[in-house]
Amino acid sequence: MTGPKSILIVTTELLTGEISHLVKDIAKQHPQIHVEALGNRSLDDLPTETLQATKYLLGFNKFPKPEQVPNLEYVQIFSAGSNHLQDHPLYKWKYDEVKWCSASGVHGPIIGEYVVMAILTHFHRYLSGINSFQGAGHWPKNWPNGVTAQQKELLHQTVGIVGYGAIGRNLARLLTGFSVNVTTLNSTKKSTAEERRQKEEYTTPGTGDIPGDIPSKWYSSNDPAEKETFFKTADVVVVTAPYTPATKHLVDATALKQMKNTALIVNIARGELIDQKALVKALENKEIGGAALDVMTPEPYPAEGDLLTKFGKDDDRERLIMTPHISGHTDKYTERVLAILEENLNRLEKGTILLNVIDRKKGY
């Protein structure tokens, strides 16, 4: 006779087809696991015995209380960051016993493409070019001067990546085709090949920089001199680091002043990593060349906010590019999260290191 099955609760509302695929695949590979999809139900609607038998959980922001799931062993979240969970009782429960894993890496390809698009839009004056010709309905009167004369090549520019995780590594790989110089800024000094190698994180096949061979320079944000050199030498700064209390305003007024007055800053991480008031001043005073923001503070960003009212006019669209937190949205998202879940279930059976383990004391 077989014993009772372990329960995997899915609290995220996936599409019906994706749930069916998950249940079918889990049943085939892990017959000892039963998948319980919550759907629109509340966790309180589940029988007590189901919650108590729960060993695994897949979700985004709907989680039970610790006392409801005393046998929980592994939580797979749907997001790359876990900052939205910092105050949840379950997240703060059993740091050393329950493994929490992120979705880091699932949107590495599409975010990398977004950043390249943002950089090229800025360098090529793409939006202003459309406004001056297609929008106007006639050939620009000041052609080839004006808009086209302001275009820059990405070739041989220095792109500094803040945080060299799955997203930063895939961006670096994409940028190699443009013959740029890549540098990176991280919280700790990474001097050896082993330190520079990517930790056990999900990487979409054919992407990324697992060995960490691409950057020409590795800087530490905890070394003021190195941090200054990073910002001074970059033509483009791309913020990809996780948001924690320690990284709040990592890009502060001092860092913005250290940047070249032609430099572009791109943020696809979290708005709080940049001191937004300082960024507005830097843009107003033209202390930097521009910003491309997929994240900002607050979200949704108000129509009367300075970023929308002061910049990005028709004749200057590339100095500030803003999008509504969409850079990581891909049609492959759920598929890749499920791939992490299935791989981690295999690793749990083997007793090996899981992918994308979150250090909950650090917050990432």
List the helices and strands and how they pair.
Blueprint: E1 6-10, H1 16-29, E2 33-37, H2 48-52, E3 54-59, E4 74-77, E5 99-101, H3 108-123, H4 126-135, E6 158-162, H5 166-175, E7 181-186, H6 193-196, E8 217-220, H7 224-233, E9 236-239, H8 253-258, E10 264-267, H9 276-284, E11 290-293, H10 306-310, E12 320-322, H11 333-350
Parallel strand pairs: 1-2, 1-3, 3-4, 4-5, 6-7, 6-9, 7-8, 9-10, 10-11, 11-12
Q: Based on CA inertia axes, which overall geometry fits?
A: elongated
How many individual β-strands? 12
Q: How much helix, percentage-wise, in residues? A: 25-40%
Output the structural class: alpha/beta
Radius of gyration: 23 Å
Characterization of this structure:
- With 364 residues, the chain is an alpha/beta fold.
- It folds into two domains: 6-106 and 332-350, NAD(P)-binding Rossmann-like Domain (Rossmann fold); 109-322, NAD(P)-binding Rossmann-like Domain (Rossmann fold).
- 29% of the residues lie in helices and 15% in strands.
- It has helices at residues 16-29, 48-52, 108-123, 126-135, 166-175, 193-196, 224-233, 253-258, 276-284, 306-310, 333-350; strands at residues 6-10, 33-37, 54-59, 74-77, 99-101, 158-162, 181-186, 217-220, 236-239, 264-267, 290-293, 320-322.
- Helix 3 (108-123) crosses helix 5 (166-175).
- The longest helix is centred in the last third of the chain and has 18 residues, at 333-350.
- The model has no long low-confidence stretch (mean pLDDT 92).
